[in-house]
Amino acid sequence: AQKIIIDTDPGQDDAVAILLALASPELEILGLTAVAGNVSLKFTEKNALKICELAGKTDIKVFSGAVRPLVRPLVTAEYVHGKTGLDGPDLPEPKMKLQEKHAVDFIVETLMKEEAGTVTLCPLGPLTNIALALIREPKIAGRIKEIVLMGGGFFEGGNITPTSEFNIYVDPHAADVVFRSGAPIVMMPLDVTHKALTSARRVEKFRTMGTRAGTATAQMLDFYERFDVEKYGTDGGPLHDPCVIAYLLKPELFKGRQCNVAVETGSELTMGMTVVDWWAVTEREKNAMVMRDIDHDGFFDLLIERIGRL
Ligand code: BDR
Ligand code: CA
């Protein structure tokens, strides 16, 4: 199985991504690392535990990470995800405990211990933990198989400011460290995720599964899409983070190209913008596989089939 670490700020769409990974035998989850983002760390770490318990996977190791971005004050999104970050279903208080070790230590130690080129990082939130790991032990950059991340946007623009996507905006300095690290990167920007919509017909398929995971998924999506449906006027909201896990399972669902990506950290107006050189108009080194298209029916078929297994 492909070894992965999921770095996350759950978040309903993070939760669905974690469920997809937990349901997939092709993936071996070495650990979940929580980061502050959609809500504060005390909620994201607890939500990560809740999701493992929902899936009946109580042996997964969950680590707590950075409480705030490297430089800027934390910006959260309770208006999207609710006060707990996981509003919608009524999930019990977790019995599972967090690991003692700090998430950043776990990431560094795992990458140094496992054979080089065998561990994939899956960041689904602000890149603070990943940047801290790269700063703590720069040798990990050459040992990471791939960083497959949800973040950024280019032709599609931003969702938190006109130019910037939430995960990159919240910690642009961390994103800058990651995109300059030299590690192989696959980027799932809004250009992809805005094509993966949780339409009523799709959510119904989770609701009628007759399992706890299916029902909770439908309740999470109902809650989480209400804000975006109003904002974008679409049938359903974009299901961002599961695109990362789907890529590991079925890369053929996505299309993109190798580009240079640079992150704006200087201008308040465009802070956190991912400047993607899609047309290769500069000599800047290509540092990321930037996705632009998704087979959204194939994506939801995969998601429904896998979550149905839980
Ligand atoms: C990203 O921001 C969060 O609200 C979601 O969980 C996703 O990771 C989308 O911009
Ligand atoms: Ca997220």
TrEMBL record:
Entry annotated with the keyword Phosphoprotein: no
Gene3D superfamilies tied to this protein: Ribonucleoside hydrolase-like
UniProt keyword terms in alphabetical order: Glycosidase, Hydrolase
Any one GO BP annotation for this protein: purine nucleoside catabolic process
One Pfam family it belongs to: IU_nuc_hydro
A single cellular component GO annotation: cytosol
Domain (Inosine/uridine-preferring nucleoside hydrolase) ranges: 4-301
Any GO molecular function: purine nucleosidase activity
InterPro entries according to UniProt: I/U_nuclsd_hydro_CS (IPR015910), Inosine/uridine_hydrolase_dom (IPR001910), IUNH (IPR023186), Ribo_hydro-like (IPR036452)
PANTHER family linked: INOSINE-URIDINE PREFERRING NUCLEOSIDE HYDROLASE, URIDINE NUCLEOSIDASE
Protein name: Purine nucleosidase
Organism: Neomesorhizobium albiziae
